[in-house]
């Protein structure tokens, strides 16, 4: 599913769009991750690939490559030493089925990668961000003010006290100036209110035993 909105008033005159493309999980317990044949859509000189990296523990994202292009590491949110989410973005003009790979500062039990394709962005700089974390059973609500035409992506993580982690993502292209809300709770659901969202499939990873919740969202113009 894609969301398109004509970018009136901007010098590029390009139709701005955002499309969720896929995800994968790496359970090798290594510090290196790589996935081939990742669909990133049609080649274009203004195509950005936005990537969310969800991981466990203290290791941080050191590098990320999309079709050989080095991505800029953006915002990170953490919950203690349990959960971590990092966003990155890269301008990738060529390729359609590519490799997304990266390195962590140390080995991580599991790494979950989600990626979106965006066209027509004015800047790869994060304009708005919000994050929070909580103990299990306490809903997380993020409600930043977002302007019309902003591309917004979010990730929610929940880890039970046993061996499951729920990783849910959502995204939208804001159709009006508004305070958009992302809700995340231990029922493993993520949902926007206040605009027309894409709520993507939730997937479950087998991981360690530290419980908690974490959510992070970023917006681009």
Provide a quick synopsis of the model.
With 221 residues, this protein is mostly beta strands.
Question: Which tags fit this structure?
Answer:
single chain, 221 residues, six-stranded antiparallel sheet
Structure report:
The chain contains no helices and 21 strands. By secondary structure, it is an all-beta fold. The chain has one domain (2-220). The strands form 5 sheets. The chain has a 6-stranded antiparallel sheet with strand order 1-2-10-4-8-7, with no helix packed on it. Strands 11, 14, 15, 19, 20 and 21 form a 6-stranded antiparallel sheet that branches.
| Total helical segments | 0
Which secondary-structure class do the elements indicate?
A: mainly beta
Low-confidence stretches: 1-12
- End-to-end span in angstroms? 20 Å
Portion in helices:
under 10%
Q: In which order are the strands of the major sheet placed?
A: 1-2-10-4-8-7
Mind telling me the C-alpha Rg? 16 Å
- Beta content comes to over 45%
How would you sum up the global shape? globular
Total count of strands: 21
Mean pLDDT: 83
* SSE string, helices as H and strands as E: EEEEEEEEEEEEEEEEEEEEE
* Total number of distinct structural domains: 1
Largest sheet: 6 strands, antiparallel
């Amino acid at each position: 599913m894609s969301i398109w909105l004509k970018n009136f008033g901007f010098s590029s005159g390009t139709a701005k769009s955002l499309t969720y493309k896929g995800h994968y999980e790496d359970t090798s317990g290594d510090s290196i991750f790589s996935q081939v044949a990742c669909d990133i859509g049609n080649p274009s000189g203004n195509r950005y690939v936005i990537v969310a990296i969800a991981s466990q523990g203290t290791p941080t994202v050191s590098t990320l490559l999309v079709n050989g292009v080095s991505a800029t590491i953006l915002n990170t949110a953490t919950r203690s030493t349990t959960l971590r989410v990092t966003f990155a973005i890269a301008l990738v003009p060529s390729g359609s089925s590519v490799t997304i790979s990266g390195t962590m500062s140390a080995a991580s039990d599991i790494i979950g990668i989600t990626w979106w394709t965006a066209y027509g962005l004015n800047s790869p700089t994060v304009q708005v961000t919000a994050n929070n974390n909580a103990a299990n059973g306490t809903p997380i609500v993020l409600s930043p003010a977002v302007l019309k035409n902003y591309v917004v992506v979010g990730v929610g993580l929940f880890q039970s006290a046993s061996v499951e982690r729920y990783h849910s993502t959502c995204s939208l292209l804001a159709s009006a100036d508004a305070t958009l809300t992302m809700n995340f709770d231990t029922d493993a659901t993520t949902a926007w209110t206040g605009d027309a969202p894409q709520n993507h499939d939730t997937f479950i990873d087998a991981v360690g035993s530290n419980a908690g919740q974490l959510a992070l969202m970023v917006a681009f113009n």
